[in-house]
């Protein structure tokens, strides 16, 4: 089995198939999307550091 075939089979099992799974997915998705706003990754991308600061070795 190749790597792509293996990952394709894993990816096909990740979607909601049953009506209860679809219900909870549709219920929870707006909450997750609201929590992932524009400011959620600021702590990563807005980090500032001094290029001239000496680093202890």
Please, could you describe this protein's structure?
The protein has a domain at 3-37. The chain is flat, with a radius of gyration of 21 Å. The mean pLDDT is 82. With 57 residues, it is mainly alpha-helical. It has three helices and no strands. Helices cover 54% and strands 0% of the residues. The N and C termini lie far apart (46 Å). It has helices spanning 3-12, 19-35, 42-45.
Question: How can the largest sheet be summarized?
Answer: none
The N- and C-terminal alpha carbons lie at a distance of 46 Å
User: How much strand content do the residues show?
Assistant: under 5%
Q: Could you say which structural class the secondary elements and strand pairing correspond to? A: mainly alpha
- Average pLDDT confidence is 82
**How would the global form be characterised?**
flat
Counted by DSSP, the helix tally is 3
Radius of gyration: 21 Å
The SSE string, one letter per element, is HHH
* Share of helical residues: 40-55%
Which residues form runs of ≥5 with pLDDT under 50?
none
How many beta-strand runs? 0
């Amino acid at each position: 089995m190749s790597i792509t075939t293996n990952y394709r089979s894993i990816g096909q099992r990740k979607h909601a198939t049953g009506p209860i799974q679809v219900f909870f997915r549709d219920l929870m998705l707006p909450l997750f999307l609201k929590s992932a706003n524009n400011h959620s990754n600021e702590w990563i991308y807005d980090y500032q550091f001094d290029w001239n600061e000496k680093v202890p070795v």
